[in-house]
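Sanity check

After download, print the first record. It should look like this:
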Amino acid sequence: MNAEELKRRFAAGERYFPALNLSRYKLIGAYLPGINLWGADLSGANLAKAKLWGADLTGANLATANLTRANLSGVKLNEANLRGAKLNYAKLYGANLTGAYYDESTRFSRGFDPISRNMRKM
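Expected structure tokens:
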């Protein structure tokens, strides 16, 4: 499945895409609120400015993904791999980050405290 097919199927009402391989996909500004990408591989994907509020990204691999200015409000990111991800200016209001992995190369907005959100440094 490519990025265009994903967007087409989402627009047609499909929401469940678990364990999908979206590695290095370009989904800049994609409108995918409420999508279920549980366990998906989004490593290296460009999701800058994507609208993903309410999505389920539990256990997803978002290593080195670009989530700059993405709307991740209410997103389930528990146990997700965020090592090396860019989360600058991402909206994380109400996001569940419990057990999500990050490292020294993960970029957060100024003032964001991953420890207070129960994230784990690797």
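If your output differs, re-run the checksum step. Summary of this record's structure: The mean pLDDT is 97.
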